[in-house]
Amino acid sequence: MRDMLDLTAYPLDRPDSPEWQALVTRCQADLARDGMFNLPGFMNSDVAQAAAQMLGAKFESESFRHEREHNIYFLKSIPELPEDHPALTRFQTSNNTLCEDQLQETPMVRLYHWAPFAQFLAATMEMPALFPMDDPLSGVNTMSYREGQALNWHFDRSEFTTTLLLQAPEQGGEFIYRTDLRSETDPNYEGVARLLRGEDPEVRSLDVTPGTLNVFRGKNTPHRVGNVRGDRARVISVFSFYDRPGVAFTEQERLGFYGRAG
Ligand SMILES: O=C(O)CCC(=O)C(=O)O
Ligand SMILES: [Fe+2]
After folding, report:
1. Is the pTM above the cut of 0.80?
2. Parts of the chain with a pLDDT under 50
3. Secondary structure in 3-state letters for 59-79
4. What atom of ligand 1 comes closest to residue 145's alpha carbon?
5. Complex-level ipTM
6. Which residue ranges does UniProt annotate as crossing the membrane (predicted)?
7. Which of 44, 100, 234, 254 is the most buried (most CB within 10 A)?
């Protein structure tokens, strides 16, 4: 792993060391304060960018073009809201996706199945353990956003999202978020409507560098990716972990997400 990760700054391979514990403590503090933590240079940026370059041809020839219209909830409707409520404003999302079976031999798949990675993430999230999926397509995905493509406003369905930026675009492609807009007890539909009208002063934007690991609590913090501009695509890997081993999506779910089951 030393050939691709900065294990000096981020000693994931030494979980019994005080340095590992100090890193975990720092990540926990960042999560509590900001709802996220970032580890710049976690993957060597040359390795990350080379991986993005190498996948360029695959994105052209065999990626799934994910194109959909959705609201911030990824739901058809919300029982307590009228259909024309501004919190249900619909937006366009577009990217090209490669699945785990198309990412074999890449640093991202090696990292995903390296047990100390899951062990570290679990510790930062204060969970007893985390496990990679047992699914041919879904555990690691890599998305490419070309000019005009973007991921639009949404709340995540999972507690945490773990990403690694491989390549940054010339312009745009920022990570845009609004911390704790809603809570378990307050859906704050009026706040959501204000956000979607572009009138929320607490929206923040983050520019990350290739190789940065980002762990983000997105269940109540809506977020989106700004429109990419310029010739270079934004390329990012997303890792999915669960609190138990052996999790897989059904064939039906895979068809829905990727247009194929295997
Ligand atoms: O591409 C990103 O930076 C964010 C990805 C994301 O929000 C998600 O996968 O839910
Ligand atoms: Fe998300």
Report:
1. yes
2. none
3. HHHHCEEEEEEECCCCCCCCC
4. 1
5. 0.98
6. none
7. 234
Residue 175 Cβ contacting ligand 1 at under 6 Å: yes
State residue 170's pLDDT score: 97
In a domain, 1, yes or no: no
Query: In the chain, how many domains are there?
Result: 1
**Arithmetic mean of pLDDT over the chain:** 97
Q: Which atom of ligand 1 is nearest to the CA of 165?
A: 3
The pLDDT score that the predictor gives to residue 48 is 98
Instruction: Give 161 Cα–ligand 1 centroid separation in angstroms.
Output: 7
pLDDT at position 137: 98
- Is residue 7 situated within a structural domain? no
What residue numbers bound the domain in which 198 lies? Answer: 18-258
Residue 153 belongs to a domain? yes
CATH code of the domain covering residue 157: 2.60.120.620
Report if residue 13 sits inside a domain.
Answer: no
Tell me if 236 CB under 6 Å of ligand 1.
yes
pLDDT of residue 215: 98
Angle at alpha carbon of residue 85, lines to 150 and 152, rounded to 5°: 5
Tally Cβ neighbours within 10 Å of residue 105: 7
Is the distance from CB of 251 to CB of 261 less than 8 angstroms? Answer: yes
| Closest ligand relative to 205 C-alpha | 1
CA dist 10 → 4, 7, 125, 236 (Å): 12, 5, 16, 20
